[in-house]
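#random but structural
TW: two for the price of one
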Amino acid sequence: MSINSFSIKLVFGLLLPAFIMMSFKVMRITKKEAITIAERYVLVNGYTSAPADSTDPRLSYTTEEVKGGMEKMLKARHNTLIPKAVKSASNRKGWQVTFEYTEEAQKAINKYQHTPHKLGVLISISSTGSYVEMSCQNVILDDK
């Protein structure tokens, strides 16, 4: 085997797999993109003071939530969150973006939970931005 053919095989043997891996590398979304996705999710799903469309295919809901119908679900969600994210953090799985409850929603929560803390919710977003979900647990925001 000549040096040239050995060099070519070595180059293809080492560089080609690396090139292929780079081609298929999944891109992580940025902090700004994560916040934009989360803010759009909160808006589309009817949590802000903006009107929501019950026929929007992007609506996300649980079976339990929609038992009374889409309109009832959207009415219950309406104006519960401030539309601008207050915090964001990344982890190995993606991003967590935090939203604060509106004053009206906070009062309703305090009625049942009797908490002196300012509360909010987390929106979790996969590292690629392809999966978004809202946490079902409240988070304390006092230390914004």
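TW: number two ↓
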Amino acid sequence: MRAAGGPGTEYVDHFEAPGCSSFDDIPESMLVHDAAALRDAWADELFSPLLRPPEMGPLPPAVPRPTTDWRPRSLEELLQPAAHARLMAWLRSTVLDMADLMRRGADGPRPHKPPPLIIAQSKMVPAARGIVWDLRDKSNIKPLDTTAPVDSDLNLPFLKVLLAGCKDRELVDHILSEVLFKADLPLHAVLLPHQNSLAGHSHGPGYERSGCHGAAGLGRRA
């Protein structure tokens, strides 16, 4: 970037030197084929040509979502009793499944792995329907503020400069502003079990287990 110059150079010092990964960096449990065979198979392959982005206009302004002054005191007040019971059972299974992953690794059995759980609008109480709820603060459950600044792990100021000349403005808007599905679909929540790759990352499962413990009303020993 320094050699190329341009407005992006001011961000160069914000990044550490990138590391080079290889097949040797892939954990044995994640390999489907022998690493040496993979290396030989790809040794003479050429990289594909640079993909040119299509010319796309910016995203249209998002349609304001319904809101309400009602403030539920807990997740239980958002859901009908049967749906809340299903969610709590799913979270309890998830806690046990994460413990299995930490103890047995990615290749170990997962007897507690829950199936995907879908919560439709019909499973919510009438006052909660049609609204995207912000559950990040358990003491302040409220409709999601879609006008708030984007909370992202990406370096958005850097990407804004880097992608200034990108012709696919729709993609840039998805990255910098919001992901806007161009389809009028009913709201629903989809909860998925963790991937096997979570095993071995003890901080992640431990951190998420503590959140599931609280949400499912479990003690710290599950």
